């Protein structure tokens, strides 16, 4: 398990921790089930990362407030299960809420930290049907593709032909 800096020197940045792990079951299963009403996605392969956002409240109690799956598929990672505990924002101290909002919210922080960490693939893909999630993703550098819900963030620039091939390959999977 690895803690990834959330890139801020503020109090909020010190309290918000992102953890990249191969299996976040113990950290994020409750949040995932509450959000999607489905069982937590247990990793099936070594090339599978799960990112958990935890906030440390005054007094030291940590709370999982966000989650995202990253599954390696060929030369790309597929993002799935991105979720945030929306109730978290209402409970934040005012200054931390302002800083979190300035940084785009927990989902944006997860996507930005993931982009910096997952550099061993050519692209990160998402399959997005929610307008708020789409807006966050586009702010983080994702681009729409010709497929209605499929978005991509290029980690490398493999050239137009290879980009088109990767998009076709991922689109063939369908919703993920």
Structural write-up:
The protein has 176 residues and is an alpha+beta fold. The chain has a domain at 2-121: Aminopeptidase (3-Layer(aba) Sandwich). The chain has seven helices and eight strands; from the N terminus they run E-H-E-H-E-E-E-H-H-H-E-H-E-E-H. The protein has helices spanning 11-15, 25-36, 87-91, 94-102, 106-117, 131-139, 160-171; strands at residues 2-4, 16-21, 48-56, 62-73, 76-84, 123-127, 143-144, 150-154. An eight-stranded mixed β-sheet has the order 1-2-3-4-5-6-8-7, sandwiched between helices. A hairpin with a 2-residue loop joins strand 4 (62-73) and strand 5. The model has no long low-confidence stretch (mean pLDDT 93).
Oligomer: single chain
Cα gyration radius (Å): 16 Å
The counted number of beta strands is 8
Number of helices: 7
Strand order of the largest sheet: 1-2-3-4-5-6-8-7
Instruction: Please tell me what the overall shape is.
Output: globular
Low-confidence segments, ≥5 residues, pLDDT <50? none
Helix-strand string: EHEHEEEHHHEHEEH
CATH architecture of the domain at 2-121: 3-Layer(aba) Sandwich
* Secondary-structure content class: alpha+beta
